[in-house]
Structure formats: C-alpha cells, structure tokens
Design brief:
Length: about 180
C-alpha cells in the first residue's frame, strides 16, 4: 500500500494494492495499519454512502465541534473530484484546499481529518461515494461553505453542477468564524 501526503498537513491519499485476475479483483479498503507510519489513529464509528449522477456537487460540508468528523472517502463505482478546505484557524494553510480525483478503477482512498470542509463533484453517472466517519452525524452541528466561493477558487472540473438548495445558500469563507 502506497500513500501520498499533500501541502496541507493532515490530508493523505492511500493507494491500496489491488489483486486482479480473470475472476475480478480483491483489495483491502481500510486498515488502521495504513495510518501507523503517519502517527494518526482515527477511530471510525459510522459509514455513509451516496450515489450521484454526473454533474452532482455535494458540499462543502463539515460538522462543528464537539461533533467534528474526520473522513476516509472513496468511490466504489465511477469517479469524483473530492475537495478538502482547511478550516483550522491556527493553520498556515487556513482557507486553502486540496483536490483529489477518486476513481473506482484506481481504488484510491482519501483521508480528511477534523477541521476541514469537504465536498465532491461526481464526474460520472452512478458514482457511489463511501465515507467512514470518526464521529456520528449530529444535525445541530452541521456547517458548510459556499461551493463556488470566489475566495476559495475551487475548480470543480464540471460546468453547471447540480447543487442542493441547501448548498446554494451556505456562507462565504470571509463570513465564517472557525471553531476548529
């Protein structure tokens, strides 16, 4: 298993070994051992799944403390552009983002610790997105940022995304006060 770190501390992309033969393939989709060389010990307590058609954009979402969530995300079918925005107020990369293309053919996995807004855009129809979360979902703790905030400058790699009404009215980064 290989991994890649990013210019924003805490974000990690894992590339599990995929064993393919004429029957199909096998891979390990998660192991706590992946995190040991990084000194990270996430405790995942909840799994989520969504299916999206091409052009759907979900995000940018987070859970506020004390219900903040770290996430381990991947796609089992399709492809998605995954984005993490650093909201840790004391971080030198506050307000910056990283993008990672998750691809069912590659079977790559992206880790986003607590303190980040997260979103993704489905690049193919029937993209199945899987999340492992380090905390339970709490509706009263929901937060988010506007997906097309010019200050963030995120290139979502799609035109005219399909966005929920709720996600269309999230605040801009400049109007956000971080609790992380």
């Amino acid at each position: 298993m290989d991994f890649k770190t990013f210019e924003i501390e805490g974000l990690v992309e894992f590339q599990p070994r995929v064993f393919r033969d004429d029957r199909g393939y096998f891979l390990e989709t998660f192991s706590t051992k992946w995190f040991e060389p990084l000194g990270i010990q996430p405790n995942f307590v909840q799994d989520n799944q969504s299916v999206s058609k091409k052009g759907v954009l979900r995000g940018l979402h987070f859970q506020k403390p004390p219900y903040a969530q770290g996430k381990l995300v991947r796609v089992s079918t399709g492809r998605a552009l995954d984005v993490a925005v650093d909201l840790r107020k004391d971080s030198p990369t506050y307000g910056q983002h990283v993008s990672c293309v998750l691809d069912a053919e590659l079977q790559n996995v992206f880790y986003i610790p607590e303190g980040f807004a997260h979103g993704f855009a489905a690049l193919e129809d029937d993209t199945t997105f899987l999340y492992k979360c380090t905390n339970y979902y709490e509706p009263s703790s929901e937060g988010g940022l506007l997906w097309n905030d010019p200050e963030l400058g995120i290139d979502w790699a799609i035109e005219n995304p399909l966005v929920s009404p709720k996600d269309e009215v999230l605040p801009l980064l400049r109007n956000f006060e971080s609790q992380f």
